[in-house]
Fold this protein.
Amino acid sequence: MKLHEYQAKEILDRYAVPTQRGRVTSDPAEARRIAEEFGGKAVVKAQVHMGGRGKAGGVKLVQTAEDAEKETREMLGKRLVSIQNPAGMVVEKVLVTELIDIAKEYYVAVTLDRAAQKDVVILSRKGGVDIEEVAHSDPAAIIRLHIDPAWGLDDFQVRNLLREAGIDEVDHRQLGALIKGLVKVYYGVDASMVEVNPCAVTPEGKVLAADAKVLIDDNALYRQKEFAALQDESADDPIEAEAHRRGIAYVRLGGHVGVIGNGAGLVMCTLDEVARAGGKASNFLDIGGGAQADQVRKSVELVLMDENVRGLLINIFGGITRCDEVAKGILEAMSSLSIRVPVVLRLEGTRAAEGLALLEGSKITGAATMQEAAQKIVALCA
Ligand code: GDP
Ligand code: MN
């Protein structure tokens, strides 16, 4: 899950990694008061889960508290759009930080290098800009240091890294400490990524994180309770957030054929069949093994929250899951929700005959195979 910059900087602060002073707000008058604390010179930064806010107009440098208020008022409620995120995101909060003078900008990140099966520190003297751009134009300017899983990171390795990356000698001590701090953050909060871009150096020579991005590994949320509470809010998609609250594995895909199945493999296979039949699935939804009627009803409800859905394909291969339980859930859903779209069902396996008997007389279209089911639903959605 993604954290906002202000949340990421709070964590950095706990690990004594220097950042600018700042506070988050959704009130322009409050933004003015925060800026006043910094003598009026401030940066107003949109708190949205997307990169490249600067280019999208989500980072404003101001010289007076009045301007901090004005920029905040303008930014709140606005939709920021970037190349990576063409749908954009609406700004609900801004972070107001003190404005610092920046003499140099470095790039630092700690993340997992899957190919090497190790965590890695990434450092570049060319920070501030898009790091993908540097990777393209000057790949030699990006230096990587793998962290030995048994030994961790040694000071001499960090010193070599700084030298290899061509970091100015005067910054070695502070930047080295900052890197070690970020590694502590990375392990401390079970992050999958900690990125500071830019890591700024002021004209006085102070090194600090002017931006911070932290991703928490979702699989660690059971022990990172503090962040688990933020997860719903952090989801970019309202249906995905609702799915998470209901404990259902749902991913929005953007098409118009709703898909429900049991078991991730079967659901992915169903998505392929929908594509082969010429349709585009609206979602991935796995009701899991041994799902009860209630879970099925909730799943149907969830898929139909997406306005684009024109039909629903339910593909169940009953093993642990009992087909009659699934049928009950579908019937509950049909009676409690006014289902406005056609439903095609393929039901196979444990207690399939009992399930199909329950559904007799309903408006559901049956299908003997997954291929047939996909063809039928795609035709009905056309
Ligand atoms: P991003 O565009 O989402 O990565 O947002 P950043 O927080 O990285 O801000 C974008 C750019 O704004 C940075 O690369 C800096 O050049 C500039 N910036 C941000 N904070 C300050 C600041 O305190 N002082 C100055 N001079 N520039 C800043
Ligand atoms: Mn940045």
About this structure: The chain has a mean pLDDT of 93.
